[in-house]
Write a structure and sequence with these properties.
The complex is a heterotrimer of chains A (172), B (296) and C (795). Chain A is α+β, with helices and mostly antiparallel strands and 172 residues long. Chain A is 37% helix and 12% strand. Chain A has 2 domains: 74 residues, Ubiquitin-like (UB roll) (Roll), CATH 3.10.20.30; 90 residues, DNA polymerase, domain 1, CATH 1.10.150. The longest helix of chain A is centred in the last third of the chain and has 17 residues. Chain B has 11 helices and 13 strands. The radius of gyration of chain B is 19 Å and the shape is globular. The model of chain B has no long low-confidence stretch (mean pLDDT 96). Chain C is globular, with a radius of gyration of 27 Å. Chain C is an alpha+beta fold. Chain C contains 18 helices and 36 strands. The N and C termini of chain C lie far apart (58 Å). Chain C has 4 domains: 178 residues, Aldehyde Oxidoreductase, domain 3 (Alpha-Beta Complex), CATH 3.90.1170; 133 residues, Aldehyde oxidase/xanthine dehydrogenase, molybdopterin binding domain (Aldehyde Oxidoreductase, domain 4), CATH 3.30.365; 212 residues, Aldehyde Oxidoreductase, domain 4 (2-Layer Sandwich), CATH 3.30.365; 140 residues, Aldehyde oxidase/xanthine dehydrogenase, molybdopterin binding domain (Aldehyde Oxidoreductase, domain 4, 2-Layer Sandwich). About 1% of the residues of chain C have low confidence. Classes of the chains: A alpha+beta (172), B alpha+beta (296), C alpha+beta (795). At the A-C interface, helix 3, helix 4, helix 5 and helix 6 of A face helix 1 and helix 16 of C. Chain C: Keywords: Oxidoreductase.
């Protein structure tokens, strides 16, 4: 079957899609967007998290046919999304790294080791900060409880989200 | 495999009538895992995402009509007052990502004894609105679960909504899992006080082949509350009463040993949850009563 | 090249100092946060096929027949291969013992063993085809534990063993046995005022790295193959792959693709040979990606173990002796079981000074899933048991558990049970002191203005308690882990470093075959090059087999050994640069003739700080390159009868304090804080060091309260091969992990550093268990502890 939908603001199409394919497979193998990761394919790890019509979901659990005509944002679109949210804002004042402030915070805080969980965590944390600019630690933990990380013990992920929130508060 | 994309409810019913083996997919939580892991190759997949009606809810006089696909996240956010037990249960479902996609219809369709919504629906009192081209019917929740992963739906029927009684008293929900988030229930327990009818209802998950109510426990407690005049005098539930109730709830279980827990533990844990949720709801009821009386 | 996701060169730094000791950022970090970093499962090649493996559905069976005709007839299928299609007489592989069939040969020995492979144009086509291969299994009885494996009539897992351990094992179902005997246990026993005996059980843990086993094999014009793969050791893979393919090693090119974590699980081969076989058979690139279910069968796990310990102590709290018997279940194939046995035996007493020791460790062959390397490697199981013993002894003696440990703590100069002196700092007592001195986390943190915040209670979001039944407990543990490969293994790394001018500034390029699996080796290599060569800009090449072996990314060894090789290669480059400078500019300044010249800030400077020349001018358009093979101090094998010998290179120590809150009625645990203190010798990158410690700590926490592969003892089949039922800690299960880093230099190691990655995985589990015991008063002799163990006291 054929599917037309919007990915990171651009109209995309996929042809000859097998009906049992997931959105994750279409993104990774058909659209050349492998940023969303395939760690469990059963909704237990969050590494494939994307936003579907604005809402974080596991793309491994979305049948490809279900996204016809809908909007998807993946990790590859996070920098653009951050740019749209606050025109002109860059990751670190005075330096355009091409990264969103949250992506930069993940780097600065050491929240990335193997990095396989990182895209999903970024999409989930980005959406949480959109709703909740000043989250408590418990709020962060709850929002990220669907994203497994095996390398970091989560401490530096907490640091990264706190850092991103603090930097945003500073910028006002 | 064919992918059916009905644009509306009537179209969905027609498709299901034509292809009774079609597997409806909404949140994908169960269906996509089975496909991804090669456990299932349905001839037809029927996407319900386009049937907008399924994503809506109406708060009526006595009950909430909850569209089958209303995501758990919306229930948590918008129906905490009307459906507190179900809202608590919704909060225990998997992860934020799953709660954004999955809804009660999926839980009912799969009818796994571990589905998180079931104990809350049993305790609150609910009816499943099922429909086919032949017509619509309401299936009482107590008659809905017919076996392990089996339900009362006919092959051509789809779940359209669930009618859940609005809470007329405190409700609670607890679930035991071996992880503090994102975990399938080892067992779960829902409890609802219904002061208007002076009854208590329960629901037990993952501790029997189907979700069940602890009927003997309910009858015991109803009688004890009545006898002690507790609904009126607002006295505390004494520990011996709570324990007897807990024991009867544990006795209502018919659990198995599996990789998630032992039968003995499940029985034990259901008892503990029954006692605690009874205490929480009853104390909340007493508190509300005092407040009301104080105001009057 | 019509391919995507091929590894890219990582360049970083400009104007930053970024040498060792600084928390420089990962050079691959920007790619990882944008989703552009190419993991092995992200690779794509025009015209590529998908490989699929058919695995055994039973644990132990003879294969009467395999019929692949229906599979071959499926449109879109390009190849189906079984044992009979293997191209050479080399049909087995293995890390230490070549006992693992590439594809099952007439028999399967564990659930999930590869039987046939398929290549097709879509993964679904490959799956459908694999499902049509008919395999006729004649099931055999299984051996699953010591009793069944060593019974007189036990089925032999391997009938015709010819490995070098067979002569010394008491039974052919024992892979390897290592005793460690020192001192006179019998008379020490006489002196003991208190003797504590215990039997402990350690479950089967999975590495659960998130990036599934995967890779892409591309056939090459010369008849060879290029394999892009996620692994821990390219050259070890190569040595095992090439003979099976019938190719010389130089026609099997290997490039490291992005690795999504490893933790030991990628030390053995998984899909490597299968992808190469299919690529060579079809003449097309073949990609294989395991799903999570298959991943549980696709790599070895941590050995489950039964451990029997006897400890004795005098009334004043001195250990008299330790007797131990450690039985590790190696599963159906040897993997690294022999080395795991060596570690369990030699480290089985822990970081304590004991004169009389009698330890025996064995690994069994069974029909359970094969077990091998996982972070902590043989030292983890023992630490769980000996730390439980230490607590029990302290309780019997009426001593504080930390003081009792400190009283017996080893220090620099202590002899190991192997007779090897500990010849660098061993601050065991100090590490314990530090975790104990930390302020306690406040009590009842779940209490908020609006009732209980269940996220901070046992059970978490599941709303099981609002404080009822919750009891706090505190526990301590400390462990010892060896760093680097031991027992006489020739453990070396190769590094090639090149310095040249590019874009008007000096740029160093580092090329090694080190597998970056997430640990941050690439960050550290760049830091070393900056420090040694005084340049800001460093390029780290993709790891491949065009350069010599860097050894394994395991045993906490890469910063030590490959880092050492990079440092030495840099030193050689520096000498050559100075030589070049002397040739070109020597006459311009007398200092050129002197010693002690340094490269700093892109310049050649004297040790007094005087600038002699700009590196740009010294180099001109010349490139200076050096390659260095570097070895740590040699080790020797343990004596097979006594276990005596200088078998280890370096030891690493960490201590934990766990604070838990247990819902004692439901048996649910919330770890409130898990503080760690560790000596790292020298923190080359403090941010990475704490990240390693926190990550290892969290894996130990998982082992304490939830992680276990459950194998049915009747059928030897895995019951929970999924992330639904194999649970790893979420962010709501993992507490604050404050880390206290000591830097006591080991003079034998580059920069004085000490391997970091594994030690925190050891002591984390027993500390959590000790805390749960403290809260519940239960004995708890098994890990992971499950809720039913806490409610019935059976664990």
């Amino acid at each position: 079957m054929r599917i037309d939908f919007t990915v990171n603001g651009r109209p995309r199409e996929a042809d000859d899609v097998w009906e049992g394919e997931s959105l994750l497979y279409v993104l990774r193998e058909r659209l050349g967007l492998p940023g969303s990761k395939n760690a469990c394919e059963q909704g237990e790890c969050g590494s494939c998290t994307v936003r579907l019509d604005g809402v974080p979901v596991c793309s491994c659990l979305v049948a490809a046919g279900q996204v016809q005509g809908r909007e998807v944002v993946t990790v590859e679109g996070l920098a653009d999304l951050a740019g749209q949210r606050s025109r002109g804002a860059v990751a670190r004042p005075g330096e355009d790294t091409g990264l969103s402030p949250l992506q930069q915070a993940f780097l600065d805080a050491g929240a990335v080791q193997c990095g396989f969980c990182t895209p999903g965590l970024l999409v989930a944390a980005d959406e949480m900060l959109e709703r909740h600019p000043d989250p408590s630690d418990a709020d962060i933990r709850e929002a990220l409880s669907g994203n497994l990380c095996r390398c970091t013990g989560y401490e530096k992920i907490m640091d990264a989200v706190r850092l991103a929130a603090a930097r945003r508060a500073e910028r006002g | 495999m064919d992918f059916l994309r009905p644009a509306g409810w009537e179209e969905a019913l027609a498709a299901k009538a034509e292809h009774p083996a079609a597997v409806p997919i909404a949140g994908g939580t169960d269906v996509m895992v089975e496909i991804n892991f090669d456990h299932r190759r349905p001839e037809y997949l029927m996407d319900l995402n386009r049937v907008g009606d399924l994503y809506e809810w109406e708060v009526g006089e006595d009950a909430v009509r909850l569209g089958a696909c209303v995501p758990y996240a919306r229930i948590m956010e918008h129906l905490r007052a009307e459906l507190p037990g179900l809202a608590l249960a919704s909060h225990t479902v998997a992860s934020p990502q799953i709660r954004n996609r999955g809804g009660v219809g999926g839980n009912l369709g799969t009818a796994s004894p571990a589905g998180d919504a079931h104990p809350a629906l049993l305790a609150a009192g609910a009816e499943v609105e099922a429909e086919s081209v032949r017509g619509a019917r309401r299936i009482p929740i107590d008659a809905f679960y017919t076996g392990v992963k089996r339900n009362a739906l006919a092959p051509d029927e789809l779940i359209r909504a669930v009618h859940v009684k609005k809470a007329d008293g405190p409700q609670q929900y607890s679930k035991v899992g071996t992880r503090n988030a994102m975990v399938i229930a080892v067992c779960a327990f829902g409890l609802a006080l219904h002061p208007e009818t002076r009854t208590v209802r329960t629901g037990i998950g993952s501790a029997a082949p189907t979700p069940v109510r602890a009927r003997a426990a309910e009858e015991f407690l109803n009688a004890a509350l009545e006898e002690g005049g507790l609904w009126d005098n607002g006295k505390a539930v004494v520990p011996s009463l709570a324990q007897r109730f807990a024991d009867l709830c544990a006795a209502a279980c018919d659990p198995i040993d599996d990789v998630r827990g032992t039968a003995g533990y499940r029985r034990h844990a259901v008892g503990v949850m029954a006692r605690r949720t009874l205490t929480w709801t009853w104390e909340s009821y007493r508190g509300a009563r005092r407040t009301t009386e104080g105001a009057a | 090249m019509p391919a995507k996701g091929m590894p890219t060169t990582l360049t970083q730094g400009s104007g930053t100092k970024g040498g060792i000791g600084e928390s420089t950022l990962r050079p691959d970090g920007a790619l990882k946060v944008t989703g552009e970093f190419a993991y092995s499962s992200d690779l794509w090649h025009e015209d590529m096929l998908w490989g699929q493996i058919l695995r055994s559905t039973v644990a132990h069976a003879e294969i009467a027949s395999i019929d692949a005709s229906e599979a071959l007839a499926v449109p879109g299928v390009y190849a189906v291969m079984t044992y009979d299609d293997l191209p050479t007489g080399v049909r087995n592989y293995g890390l230490e013992i070549r006992d693992t069939p590439v594809l099952a040969h007439g028999k399967v020995r564990h659930h999930g063993e590869p039987v046939a492979i398929v290549a097709a144009d879509h993964p679904e086509t490959a799956r459908r085809a694999a499902a049509r291969i008919r395999v006729d299994y004649r099931e055999l009885p299984v051996v699953t534990d010591e009793a069944s494996a060593l019974a007189p009539d036990a089925a032999l897992v391997h009938e015709n063993r010819d490995d070098h351990h067979i002569a010394r094992v008491p039974h052919p179902n024992i892979v390897h046995r290592q005793p460690v005997v020192r001192g006179d246990v019998a008379s020490a026993r006489e002196r003991a005022d208190v003797i504590v005996e215990g039997e402990y059980t350690f479950g089967m843990q999975d590495q659960a790295f998130l990036g599934p086993e995967s890779g892409l094999a591309v056939p090459e014009e010369d008849g060879g193959v290029h394999l892009y793969v996620a692994t821990q050791w390219l050259h070890s893979d190569l040595r095992q792959i090439a003979p099976v393919l019938g190719l010389p090693e130089d026609r099997v090119r290997m490039t490291l693709a992005g690795v999504g974590g490893a933790f030991g699980g990628r030390e053995d081969l998984s899909m490597q040979i299968h992808a190469c076989l299919l690529a060579l058979r079809t003449g097309k690139p073949v990609k294989i990606v395991y799903n999570r279910f298959e991943s549980f069968f696709g790599h070895v796990h941590r050995h489950p173990a039964k451990l029997h310990y006897e400890h004795g102590a005098t009334a004043d709290g001195r250990l008299t002796h330790v007797k131990a018997r450690i039985v590790l279940d190696g599963g159906a194939y040897a993997s690294s079981s022999p080395a795991v046995v060596g570690n369990a035996a030699s480290l089985g007493v822990g970081p304590y000074a004991v004169d009389a020791v009698d330890v025996e460790a064995v690994a069994l062959y069974t029909n359970n899933p094969p077990c091998g390397a996982m972070r902590g490697f043989g030292a983890v199981q023992a630490c769980f048991a000996y730390e439980a013993q230490m607590d029990r002894l302290a309780a019997r003696l009426g001593l504080d558990p930390v003081e009792f440990r400190q009283l017996n703590a080893m220090e620099q100069g202590t002899l190991m049970p192997t007779g090897q002196p500990v010849d660098s700092p061993a601050p065991v007592a100090e590490l314990l002191r530090r975790v104990k001195a930390r302020p306690m986390p406040p009590e009842r943190q779940w209490e908020s203005g609006e009732g209980a915040d269940v996220r901070r209670l046992p059970g978490g979001l599941s709303n099981t308690t609002h404080g009822e039944g919750v009891v706090r407990g505190v526990g301590y543990a400390v462990g010892i882990k060896n760093v680097g490969f031991s027992e006489g293994f020739d453990d070396y790394s190769t590094a090639r470093v090149r310095l040249e001018v590019a874009g008007g500034e000096p740029v160093a390029a580092v090329h090694t075959a080190m597998a970056e699996v997430g640990q941050g080796g690439v960050t550290v290599h760049a830091q070393i090059a900056r420090t040694e060569l005084g340049v800001a800009r460093v390029t780290v090449h993709p790891a491949d087999t065009r350069v010599g072996s860097a050894g394994s990314t395991s045993a906490s060894r890469q910063t030590y050994v490959t880092g050492g090789a990079v440092r030495n290669a840099c030193e050689l480059v520096r000498e050559k640069v100075l030589e070049l400078g002397r040739r070109k500019l020597g006459p311009s300044h007398p200092a050129w003739a002197g010693a002690g010249l340094l490269l700093e800030g892109g310049k050649v400077v004297t040790d007094g700080g005087e600038v002699l020349a700009d590196l740009v001018d010294v180099l001109g358009d010349e490139a200076v390159e050096a390659e260095e093979e570097w070895r740590h101090r040699p080790t020797e094998p343990f004596d097979p009868r006594t276990g005596q010998g200088d078998g280890h290179v370096q030891y690493s120590f960490a201590a934990h304090r766990a604070v838990v809150e247990v819902d004692t009625e439901l048996g649910l645990v919330k770890v409130v804080e898990l503080a760690c203190a560790q000596d790292v010798g020298k923190a080359l990158n403090p941010l990475s060091v704490t990240g390693q410690i926190q990550g290892g700590t969290a894996q130990g926490l998982g082992m304490a309260v939830m992680e276990e592969i459950v194998v049915d003892p009747r059928t030897a089949k895995v019951r929970n091969p999924s992330f639904t039922d194999y649970l790893v800690p979420t962010i709501l299960d993992t507490p604050a992990i404050p880390v206290d880093v000591l830097e006591l230099a080991d003079d034998h190691a580059p920069y004085g550093l000490r391997g970091v990655g594994e030690a925190p995985t050891l002591s984390s589990t027993p500390a959590v268990l000790a805390a749960i015991r403290d809260a519940t008063g239960l004995e708890l002799s098994r890990t992971p502890v499950r809720p039913e163990h806490l409610t019935t006291g059976t664990g």
